[in-house]
Amino acid sequence: MFIQRHPLAILAFFIFIAFFLPLPFSPLFDLDEGAFSEATREMLVGKDYITTYLNGELRFDKPILIYWFQLMSVKLFGLNEFALRLPSALAGTFWAMSIYFFIQKTIDKPTAFFATLFMVASIQINMITKAAIADSLLNLFIVLSMFSIYYYHKEKKQKLLYWAFFFIALGTLTKGPVAIMIPVIVTLLFYSIRGDFLRWIKMVFNPIGILIFVLVAAPWYIAEYLAQGQAFIDGFFFQHNIGRFSSAMESHRGTLLYFIPVLIVGFMPFTYFAVKAIAGVKSYIKDDLKLYLFIWFAFVFVFFSFSGTKLPHYVIYGYTPLFILSALYLQKNVSKAWLIYPILILLTILLFLPDIATIFKESIRDELAQVLIENAYETFDIWYRLLIISVMLFLLFLLKFLQKTESIVMGMALAMIVSVNFIVIPTYGKLMQLPIKEAALLAKNKPYKNIIMYGISTPSFNVYYEGLVSKKRPINGDIVFTKTPKLKDFKNYKILYKKNGFTLIKLGDN
Question: 99 near 116, Cβ under 8 Å?
């Protein structure tokens, strides 16, 4: 009853504890958060608002929009984790609300509530909506464009199509051609199945829509080409877009089955409903909305399964339709055990994470990873384990004493949000990223000039150091930030800082 009366208030609570409250709790994570944040810092310092740089070198990985939003946030709140992550949290909030209002209008309010809750509380969304990267913003624009197109399909109002072109343009300014590809291909498949290909042609080549797209998206691309010429074409389009599909960049490769385990874990704690939704595909063909949503999910899943470069967040572009389809199965013969046990298994793995890592330590070639595992017990301490056990006991309480599926699902959402945001991520951040932050702040406050980063790539160091670093062979007298296993490359040095495999040293006579 309370859910029916106050759905937005409940969702606002979950969004606050999932997206906003944890923003400053962990240092920036490398490589992605560090790279985006450092590029924003260099934009702030260099006042070049067209071209992005990373450690003084051209960065063509992503278009400009997320950097502009992060820059505005930093100017308002300072150079810190909260400010750098805030645009993603805001984008995640609008993304969640767009799901709610779309489903409230097309299906009903309870389905809208739980589809939105699935989005807010799932593991992968919890991660990207707090990360200082482009993906939360991109997903917002993909979702808004796809919803606008569906509204246009049903209501035949031209302004809805124009809004779709507008959101596609903003997505193109956020991450490039993927924001065009998903709406175009999904709608092509949908209209072709419905035998309305000519209408699709008319929709895609709408002259006013194309004009809106060009007016919004083109100016930055033109300005960047005028500033950087062929280097922009080669770096952005060929390397970071076509190259990502045709080959594995930066060793991010995987088999055709790569996204199956990603989906199973990334959709938790609601994987049970996702499996039900995917298995029910035969029933979708007669329903426009369900068919549209399933094609959207299936295309993203299949396309990126064939991509040469595979990263876990790629499949998230197809999560929104799956959240909606999954919410439809909330009342259909739900097994409490199937809901709770998978999360208990995941939490059990997290409880014994240092022990599991120690078992596999000898088979890991990365020397830094070996050092981190050796230090993990100190960080993943008794308090970490007690907190995980407390969440597990809470889930067992849900299993034993609650009967309504809706109440259990809300309890699962709370358990997952608390586990991810207030236990696991802060603990991992303390182990992996806090030493980088502390070393950078030490170098900044001394101050040490002309830092050399040797044998390691952690752009978050630049953010906290608030300066560029050199990447060259160090010589006598240099201040060097490196990983502990690399110390064997030097004979004489003074340790200025050392923790969890990260070291700041001053070289002496060789």
Answer: yes
